Each structure stands twice: as C-alpha cells, then as structure tokens.
Amino acid sequence: MSKKEDSLSTPIRLLLIDDEVGYVNVLSNRLSKRNFVVGKATSGTEAFQILRRRDFDVAILDLKMEDMDGIEILKILKKMAPELVVIMLTGHGSAEAAREGIKQGAYDYLTKPCELNDLVKKIKEAYDRRSGDPIVE
Questions:
Q1: How many Å apart are CA 97 and CA 88, to the nearest integer?
Q2: Entry pTM
Q3: Of 88, 92, 118, 114, residue with least CA distance to 102
Q4: What's the CATH code of the domain at 10?
Q5: pLDDT-derived band of residue 57, with 50, 70 and 90 as boundaries?
Q6: Are 88 and 65 in contact (CB under 8 A)?
Q7: Residue at 125 is within a domain
Q8: Quick check: is 135 in a domain?
Q9: Is residue 130 part of a domain?
Q10: Count of domains for the chain
Q11: Distance of CA 79 to the CA centre of its chain
Q12: In angstroms, rounded to a whole number, what is the distance separating the alpha carbons of residues 108 and 101?
C-alpha cells in the first residue's frame, strides 16, 4: 500500500494543546466526527506526558497557555518528536509570535478563532507534508 492510500484509510492522529478546556472539548468532538483520532492536553506538561505514551501525526498548539509559553512548548515537542507537525493557533495581534514559532519548527499558524473547515484543511496539508506526499488542492 502506498503512503497516499494509507493516509486515506488511516485516521490522522491529532493532539490538541490548549488551556481553554471547553474549546478543547468542543474542537475534539467536532474533529472526531471527521475521522480524526484526537488526544487532548490542557497544559504543556500534560501534552508532554501524553506524547510519551502515544504517537501523533499533527499537533494543534495554542500560543497563549497558562503554564508555559507556546514557543517553549513547541521547542520541547520538536525535541521529543521531531517528525510531529505542529500548527499553532494564535489570537488576533499575535502574528509576530506565530512567525517566531515557524522559525522554531512549526508548520504554520491559524488565527483563533478559525473556521473548522480551514483548520481541517490545514491539518490535512500538514499531514501530507509530514508523509512526504505532495499537497493536492
């Protein structure tokens, strides 16, 4: 089976990292209905613990977290799992921080709140980039 065929049949394993518990739960439910396998972390520390136990393809990381700065979380994630593709979520006016995240190894960023379809598209692009397949629009 080719990577492309495998990526169509295997759900993308997604780790959501955001300290807004309600947001994480709602987003997790919505993405699960779209055939993503979703892990949830509401702190950087929790994300590291989960990543030690399970593998993920893509992470969605909020830049503004209570326990740790999102850039610091990103740096540790990339050391723990260099193949993990990270998409950052940032509030309005935080584009500079998001650009810093890309310098630190993040794939891309979206402004929060974002449309679910835009997020799903970005996750699939990130997953395709991870697997080495070309992005098909």
A1: 10
A2: 0.85
A3: 88
A4: 3.40.50.2300
A5: very high
A6: no
A7: no
A8: no
A9: no
A10: 1
A11: 15
A12: 8
